[in-house]
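Quick illustration, no need to memorize.
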Amino acid sequence: MTFDGTQKTIGYGAQAEVLLYHGFAYKVYKSSYPAEWIAFEKEQQKAVNTAGLCPVKYYDTDDTHIIKMDFVEGDTLEKKMRDMMIAKAELSKVTEGFDILARAFRFVHQADTTGTTIPNLIDTAGMGLSEEEKAVVLPTIEHLSKKFSSCICHLDMHFLNLMLVPGKTDFTIIDWMNARLAPPVFDYARTYVIFNEFAKDALELYRNAVRQDILGLGISDEDFAAAVKVCTILREHEK
């Protein structure tokens, strides 16, 4: 497809940029990005729509490397947090952002998985790993999957993937490419790995915000540490 010059860049990542164009968002991937991965992302979005986890719908275009999406009004939670840090907001205000994150986890994990097409983590986690890495990752996922029930996990939950609705406490969770069926410990661990990589000073606030939910699920420190090890290995293969 061809844009008429009125498009505006509203986001970008390693493989794509997002444009606002005639009231819709368009995710424009690099030509080198595999088209089958884009098709998979569309299927993931349909699955989370069906599960009631995200209202944003994806639409086909005449270019396999461009996805048309509903535009989400509002700012990311990351922007809200950054603005508060600049304004040197009180700690109680800062912790509100982490409470929103914790609420987002609970919202996702309660979703009905009946008939979902979201794949199991155990079925995809070994892709691209060395045999040595597989020997760590796959048995750990299998062990924790026997110990805890699986649910839909976002597996990329952080401030940039939470859009806040202006004037409300509601949020919209975006970017579901990584979503898998897995024990929730992996969702919490994945976010821990992200904070440890980009904002170590926020780790304690994050752990405090999700601690009661983790304890309520019966997740021990050993379980959490094992899941963090798995997520660290998987994260390394994304870079």
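Residues 53 and 107 are 8 Å apart (CA to CA).
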